[in-house]
């Protein structure tokens, strides 16, 4: 139980540091970076804690929680990319000075 508690506390510390990053960073795009990385790391730590917990309670190694973390590891970066693209689109629509979008096709000479 002590190992599980320490892992859960470590996960909480990681999320707290991400929240501090939200407060300190000035721009939306910079603010997106800290919680995106930290939430994935915190989710991995919580998954490890649940594996330790359920493995110690049961007879064998409990790996069913890996399914949850695999789904989270795939969806969290995709969500971050979609949010960043939506924010870029809105800032371009507002007329902010941003780099032009990448073209979708091959470049012609």
The helix/strand class is mainly alpha
Approximate helicity band:
over 70%
Task: Give the percentage of residues in beta strands.
Answer: under 5%
The low-confidence runs, each spanning 5 or more residues with pLDDT under 50, are none
Total beta strands: 0
Tell me about the largest β-sheet.
none
Roughly how many Å apart are the termini? 65 Å
Number of helices: 3
Mean pLDDT: 83
Shape: elongated
Order of helices and strands: HHH
CA radius of gyration is 19 Å
Can I get a quick summary?
With 109 residues, the chain is mainly alpha-helical. The chain contains 3 helices and no strands.
Question: What does this protein look like?
Answer:
This protein is an all-alpha fold and 109 residues long. It has helices spanning 2-24, 28-57, 66-93. α1 packs antiparallel against α2 and α2 runs antiparallel to α3 (66-93). The longest helix is centred in the middle third of the chain and has 30 residues, at 28-57. 8% of the residues are buried. The mean pLDDT is 83.
């Amino acid at each position: 139980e002590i190992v599980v508690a320490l892992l859960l506390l470590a996960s909480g510390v990681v999320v707290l540091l991400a929240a501090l990053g939200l407060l300190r960073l000035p721009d939306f795009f910079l603010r997106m970076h800290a919680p995106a990385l930290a939430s994935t790391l915190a989710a991995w730590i919580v998954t490890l804690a649940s594996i330790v917990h359920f493995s110690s309670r049961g007879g064998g190694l409990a790996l069913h929680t890996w399914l949850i973390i695999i789904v989270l590891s795939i969806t969290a970066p995709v969500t971050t990319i979609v949010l960043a693209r939506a924010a870029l689109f809105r800032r371009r629509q507002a007329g902010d000075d941003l780099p032009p979008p990448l073209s979708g096709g091959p470049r012609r000479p």
